[in-house]
Structures are given as structure tokens and as C-alpha cells.
Amino acid sequence: MALLLLYLLMPFDLVPDFIPVAGQLDDAILVAAVLAYAARSTGRELIEELWPGSERGLRVVLALAR
Length: 66
Prior knowledge:
Layout: H1 2-9, H2 22-42, H3 44-50, H4 55-64
């Protein structure tokens, strides 16, 4: 998670943000992949216990983790 945060804060990306759609899509894919990895690694119960967001958001995160 820390490496993801560092990547998102860096001023350069693998695909520059000025390229329409692809610039933001690479960030979104990376965030989804890291969240899915974290969800699989920690277990469903811990995520449900600590989830601060909505029930719908939790369902989306857990679906991505499959």
C-alpha cells in the first residue's frame, strides 16, 4: 500500500496523464490490483470489520478481490 501511495504521488507515471483515458486508466488498474491483493491477503472478515465506507463500496472491493 505504501508503494502504491508513493507511485500515485510521483510526478511521472508509466502512462502520462495528459494522454486521454489511458493516463488515468493505468492508475485505476494499479489501485484495483493492489486493493484486490490486499483483500486476498488479509481475509474477508478483516476487511468487513475495518471497512469505513458504504455497504455497496464494500461489495465492490470484495468482488474485485475474487
